[in-house]
Amino acid sequence: MKLENIYNILNAEIPHALSDRYVAAYGGHDNSGILLNTGEEIERAVFSLDLSRAAIERAVVRGAKLIVTHHPAIYYPVSELSIADAMGKKLLDCAKNGISVVAMHLNADCAPRGVDYYLAQAAGASDEENVPVQPVEGGGYGRVFTIADITAKELANTLRQTLGAERLWVFGGEQKIGRAASFCGAGVDGDTIKIAKERGAQALISADIKHNYICEALDLGMNVIELTHYASENYGFHKIYQNLKDKLGVASEYCDDGFML
Fold first, then answer.
1. Is residue 70 a known part of a binding site?
2. Mind listing the pLDDT tens digit for each residue in 225-261?
3. Model-level pTM?
4. Is the pLDDT confidence value at 59 over 90?
5. Would you say 229 is a known binding-site residue?
6. Which domains does the chain possess?
7. Fewer Cβ atoms within 10 Å of its own Cβ: the N or the C terminal residue of the chain?
8. 3-state secondary structure the chain
């Protein structure tokens, strides 16, 4: 099967336009889409949150000629590819082995059943409240929702079990909380903290949170639960894979880098 045919299927389910709309509305940068096209016929694909060494080795061993990632291996324009550079070597290894690479980043975050949606679901959001607080046409990012009255540590334990998270950090007290906000990946900044507070969130769930934003959230009376970036997104991207695998027209599998949890 040609890469373009598979990409059309992916794009129909997780439209690239979601990324464009989010960047236009809220700023930032993205580079989702086809990043490397080797022209090889594809009979098997590997999905992975990152273009990791494990994903490439899996693809080589299994004869997969496509790797679909969440995070773009090429994020900003590059002036050269070199084996002396870690990502450059991985891309060159893919090219050498005829493996094409596709990324679904902000579009997968913002999809109605996307990475951000599934993080909120893992934290206990109902479908009725699992709606984006930064909306764009067809999707959006960030959630604020009601949860059972539990402490931040109890909420963290729920996330640990559901996401398989081995490392997380809890900042806050022992008081019961009834509303939470979640932003997959590195989504916390002054704007999202303001949205969370205005909508009554008593706990903030995200990853890669800068120290000053942790302090700001605590000063505003919110608890903070910080996951690894991988743990905050791998659960949702794997769910996306499960929803897509029977629609691709080729065999596929998912590669976990569990040590990143």
1. yes
2. 999 999 999 999 999 999 999 999 999 999 999 999 9
3. 0.97
4. yes
5. yes
6. 3-108 (3.40.1390.30), 111-232 (3.40.1390.30)
7. N
8. CCHHHHHHHHHHHCCHHHHHHHHHHHCCCCCCEEEECCCCCCCEEEEECCCCHHHHHHHHHHCCCEEEECCCCCCCCCCCCCCCCHHHHHHHHHHHCCCEEEECCHHHHHCCCCHHHHHHHHHCCCCCCCCCCEEECCEEECEEEEEEEECHHHHHHHHHHHHCCCCEEEECCCCCEEEEEECCCCCCCHHHHHHHHHCCCCEEEEECCCHHHHHHHHHCCCEEEEECHHHHHHHHHHHHHHHHHHHCCCEEEECCCHHHC
